[in-house]
Amino acid sequence: MTRRKNLKPETRIIEEGYQHKLAMNSAKPPLYLTSTFVFDSSEQGARFFDVTHGHGSPEDGGLIYSRIGNPNLSIFESRVRVFDGGEAAAAFSSGMSAISTMLMTLFDPDSYLAYAEPLYGGTEEFLAAIAPKLGIRSLPIRAGDHAAKALVELAEREGPPWMVFLETPANPSIEMTDIGDVAEAAHSMEEKGRRPLVAVDNTFLGPIFQQPLKHAADLVVYSCTKFIGGHSDFVGGALIGSEEHIKRVKGYRSKIGTTMDPFSAWLGCRSLETLDVRMRRSNETAKRIAAELDKHPSVLSVNYPELFPEGSTQRAIYEKQCTGSGALISFDLASKKAAFAFLDALEVFTLAVSLGGNESLAEHPAAHTHSGIPAEIRAKIGVGEGLARLSIGLEHPDDLLADIFQALEKI
Ligand SMILES: *Cc1c(COP(=O)(O)O)cnc(C)c1O
Asked: 9-272 maps to which CATH number?
């Protein structure tokens, strides 16, 4: 069978990176649970090592050891970049190891990292507590409508950063940052032949509804634990970008040991095949739930992209860079007591942190995911005491809505 060129991502994702001829004609990739690989000869082993040390041509390389590479890892890496359209990808043991390995590899000790606040809690903690010990200095700008302007002002004071790292939409406020504007500002700061890199944590809407590389970002990072995995059954991460950047990061990854394991990579491949349908279905359900919440008398306000006011900057950013509104909704129930009563009354939703699984989840950001953040910063980033967060899964929308209505009655 010869394959046609120019296939769409939804088609490519089913077969990319896998040749059944190399695996006893198995229609699906087998799981390669092995830590080490056999050389045909000492000479061949020496050649494989040469290639991992950056000598010779990559075609002469081969499998050595699963911390460096494994067939399941390679298949997952060739697939996870398909929707974003990146040249190359690296897979990691978690979203946090993707982020930390990227920063440790690419950082420039003579400059600093600019980051749009708020980032995922684990990332903020890494930047505050661990990065400085490694020599990685970081300075915040506020995410949202004025991020590009804030970046220009920061660079006027401190010089250009080596990287700008942002996350859009923000969690759990769903506030958006204009990737294209930030990239344009960053890329205009070229100095001594170097320009700041732009990296985007695309876990919330990507890769189906937001593709940062198409808005001039250099790198895209994922927690594959969330939508990409989609079944809440493994922890993983991915980084997508140019061959050159990914090659450097993989070199560090094999030394630090933050590589994704074969079983997670296998689960990730299974998941990617249904990613598009899963995200579109949960998006449709979430749109309906957000609209109903918005009308409910017990709900003060709802954070969801489809509800951004016409004519607002947030609406303009949403329409410019997103093709769907996603499955995350947060809303204000006025007090912690009301929010707890609502959450504890849910019967179909599962009370748990994390997001992006096929089961719908509910949590209280101020007391759960964002409890490590001081109260005054929580208030600044839109995490009030009455806020509840929902991650919409694949259950029937009628059942989810009925569950929400009955739980709202209990407050
Ligand atoms: C969960 C998450 C992470 C961290 O990923 P892990 O797989 O839990 O390490 C990073 N960024 C965002 C936006 C996340 O939601």
From this structure: 3.40.640.10
Residue 200 CA, ligand 1 centroid: distance in Å = 12
154 contacts: CB under 8 Å, gap ≥ 6: 114, 139, 141, 161
Q: For residue 203, give the ligand 1 atom closest to its CA.
A: 13
Q: What is the pTM of this model?
A: 0.96
For the stretch 371-390, pLDDT in tens is 988 888 888 888 999 999 99
Closest residue by Cα to atom 4, ligand 1, is 95
What is the atom index within ligand 1 of the atom nearest the CA of 354?
1
pLDDT digits 0-9 by tens, 265-312: 999 999 999 999 999 999 999 999 999 999 999 999 999 999 999 999
Q: Which residues line ligand 1 (CB under 6 A)?
A: 94-96, 120, 122, 167, 171, 201, 203, 223, 225-226, 235, 237
Ligand 1 atom, smallest distance to 235 CA: 7
Pick from 223, 224, 368 the residue to mutate for probing ligand 1's pocket: most ligand atoms within 8 Å of its CB.
223
Nearest to 239 by CA among 97, 406, 52: 97
Flag whether pLDDT at 3 surpasses 80.
Answer: no
Alpha carbon distance 108, 312 (integer Å): 37
Going from the C-alpha of 238 to that of each of 225, 266, 406, the distances in angstroms are: 10, 14, 39
Closest ligand 1 atom to the C-alpha of 96? 9
The reported pLDDT for the residue numbered 57 is 86
Portions of the chain given CATH number 3.90.1150.10 = 279-408
- Give the pLDDT confidence of 234-276 residue by residue, as tens digits: 999 999 999 999 999 999 999 999 999 999 999 999 999 999 9
CATH of domain 279-408: 3.90.1150.10
- Model confidence band, residue 2 (pLDDT cutoffs 50, 70, 90): low
Q: List every span in the chain annotated with CATH 3.40.640.10.
A: 9-272
Alpha-carbon distance of 178 to 185, in angstroms, equals: 11
Using DSSP bridges, classify how beta strands 138-142 and 88-92 pair: parallel, antiparallel or unpaired.
unpaired
